[in-house]
Structures are given as C-alpha cells and as structure tokens.
Design brief:
This protein is an alpha+beta fold. The chain contains eleven helices and ten strands. It has a four-stranded mixed β-sheet with strand order 1-4-5-8, with helices on one face.
Length: 376
C-alpha cells in the first residue's frame, strides 16, 4: 500500500542507507548484545558517522537540519530488523528534543554536537520507585544553593541508564515545582545501580540511578526553573507517537516472518497457511495493520505541521502497541511449540512486545487522556 507521508527521492535514498546500516551493524550482532545485556558504544559512534543520530537537529549544532520524516525512516528501519536493544529513537526523538527546544544556545553548543556524533548517549530520568506515571509524586530533590543545585534521590527503569553520558533529570524544589537538570557522567555523587533484568528487551540497558549530594551547576538547568512539568507534558506527545510508529513496523515484521513460516510448515498433510482459520486470522491482522499505518501516518503529518496532537498521539500509542502485543501473541500460536523456543525470532518478539503498552504512559493512561479530550 502506498504511504500517505510525502517521502521524496532524497528520503528513499536515506532509507536505503539506513536499511543497510541496520542490516549490517545491528541485526547480525543483536543476539550477542542480548547475551551481554548491553550494546557497545561503538554502534552509537557508527550511527553518528552515518548521520543517523539527531538528524533533525540544526546543522550549527551538529545535526543535518533534516525534516522529521528522516526520524520516522530511522525508527521504521530499526524496527524492521527486530532491533530492541539499540535505543536510537529514545536518543533521537524523545530526549534530544528537550535540548533542541528548551536549552539555551550555550547548552546546545555544549551538548548537541556530541549527541549527533555518538560521543554522548542520552537518557531521561523521570520514573522513581514510588512514582511511575504520576510525575507530581517525584521525590528527587534539588536544593537551590545560589550558583548550583544539590540533588538527592533515586530513579529507576531508566533506559540507556548504563551507557548514558548525559541524563536529563526531573527534580523537585522545596516549593513543589519541578525542573529539568542535566546530570553528566563523572559528577561526584552520581552512581549507577544494577542493569535491571527484564523479561524482554534483553540487549537494552535499563538501570537504577542514585544521586547523593550531586552538585549540579545552574548552567545545567534546562529552560526555566520550575517549568519542568510543563516541558515534560509538551514532549510526551512526540514520544508516544514515535512509539506507535515503531509498534506498527514491529507488527509488520511479525506478520512477515509468520507468513513465511505458514507458507512452508505443514500439518496433517497440508501447509498451515491453507487452513481457513489461519487465512482468516492473517487477513484480520493484515487489515488492522494497514489501518493503523494510515492513522499513524496522518498524525505524523499533523505533528509535523505543528498541530496539537496530544489526544491523537495517545490514540496511536494505545492502539498500535496493543495491536503489536495481540498480533505477536496470535502469530506465535501458528508456530506451535517452536514459537516457544528462543532461537525463533517470534519468541523474542513476543517478549519484547510486552513493554510497549507500559512505558511512555500505560494504555490506561492513554485512554484517560483521550477521554479528557472528549470532555469527560
């Protein structure tokens, strides 16, 4: 089906390059990364050399100044090879925009060029042991000492937590307001906890972070003091939208590998794909996937025009991620016992899909946001 997004010849050429990168630099190594529970920093630098990091960052800060469709292409090509360890979209589409949008010129020049080259890896630290989606319950404190803050607290479930050099951290002041500060690798009192053991995303480092009297200079305050909650709310729509884009492509991969299998595997003397139940299930899933693709593309276009897509991005996120989880489960069934074996890609896809309806806001939170948009 032809896409409604306005891809140009330049976009298609970029896609070919991105596809080659993920096919050669990510896919062959992913199993090793899963065993090590982390990806090497080298792949980040290679991505930077190929222009795959922060493409929409202005050229003066080390990026390419490209439109957001280049980011979409990177997300899709990453998901196309089943990449769930090299969290490139988190770096490009979720965290870098906080710097691009809210940081001052000096901060942009200090941080963004290394983010674009792969020398610096980004993380964002919001979630705490006692506060998940409820950002107002944050307890990590930042005491104002004039020219610096003293930060104390703990974060958990932080993606890129072991690798990150720059961590945008949500902190709370004595007056209850929230700010965003950049905590950098090497700051005294900043410690990384264990690399958390997850049921999926085995190659992706997810960590606990500890801040014990960390001195953060005021030069590392992002935007205005006390405006952190507003900044986080403004950027969550894009985070949810790009997760939906990734979920659509991940679902397409699952359907592709399942089609290949059911066209070859036989049971009771005939190919699995020839059974009516199999045909009907695959027909239903193929239809739903195409509908999700069109809606996500529509919202991407609205987002690129600068329209408020808070509710629509939430719709995309809950629907596409729930679709990914459900379709992966249904496709695994066609593999029988082999679907339960980790050497089959469908098994890893099944485990990796489960987190999609949880992070960046659960399905229930998405429905709450959509409900409010309806005046309920």
């Amino acid at each position: 089906m032809e896409r409604i997004l306005p891809f140009t010849e330049e976009h298609h050429q970029f896609r070919e390059m991105a596809r080659k990168f993920f096919e050669t630099e990510v896919k062959p190594h992913h199993e090793t990364w899963e065993k090590n529970h982390i990806v090497p920093k080298e792949v980040w630098r290679k991505a930077g050399e190929n222009g795959l990091l922060c493409p929409d960052v202005p050229a003066e800060y080390g990026g390419s100044g490209a439109d957001f469709l280049y980011n979409i292409i990177i997300i899709e090509e990453s998901s196309r090879v089943g990449n769930s360890g090299f969290f490139i979209s988190l770096h490009n589409d979720v965290i870098a925009p906080y710097i691009s949008t809210y940081a001052n010129d000096e901060q942009k020049k200090r941080w963004l060029p290394k983010c674009a080259s792969g020398e610096s890896i980004l993380a964002v630290a919001m979630t705490e042991p006692g506060a998940g989606s409820d950002l107002k319950s944050l307890r990590t404190s930042a005491v104002d000492k004039g020219d610096h803050f003293v930060v104390n607290g703990q974060k958990t479930f932080i993606s890129n937590g072991q690798l990150a050099d720059l961590i945008i951290t949500a902190v709370k002041h004595d007056n209850g307001t929230i700010s965003l500060v950049m905590i950098e690798e090497g700051m005294k009192g900043f410690e990384r906890g264990r690399n958390l053991d997850k049921i999926g995303l085995k190659a992706q480092d997810t960590s606990e972070l500890y801040f014990n009297d960390v001195i953060v200079p005021k030069e590392n305050l992002i935007g205005k003091q006390g405006q952190g909650f507003r900044y986080l709310m403004q950027k969550l729509a894009q985070e949810r939208l790009v997760l939906a884009v990734a979920a659509v492509e991940a679902t397409r991969l699952v359907q592709t590998i399942t089609l290949q299998y059911i066209k070859e595997r036989k049971a009771f003397g005939q190919k699995i794909g020839s059974f009516q139940n199999t045909k009907f299930k695959m027909a239903e899933m193929a239809t739903e996937l195409e509908m999700a693709q069109v809606f996500c593309d529509k919202v991407v276009m609205e987002h690129m025009k600068g329209e408020n897509t808070t509710a629509e991005a939430s719709m995309c996120k809950w629907y596409a991620t729930e679709m990914q989880k459900r379709h992966t489960d249904e496709c695994l069934q066609f593999f029988g016992g082999y679907g339960y074996m980790m050497e089959y890609p469908i098994a890893r896809a099944y485990l990796d899909a489960r987190i999609q309806t949880i992070y960046a806001g659960t399905t229930e939170i998405m429905k709450e946001i959509i409900g409010r948009s309806l005046g309920l």
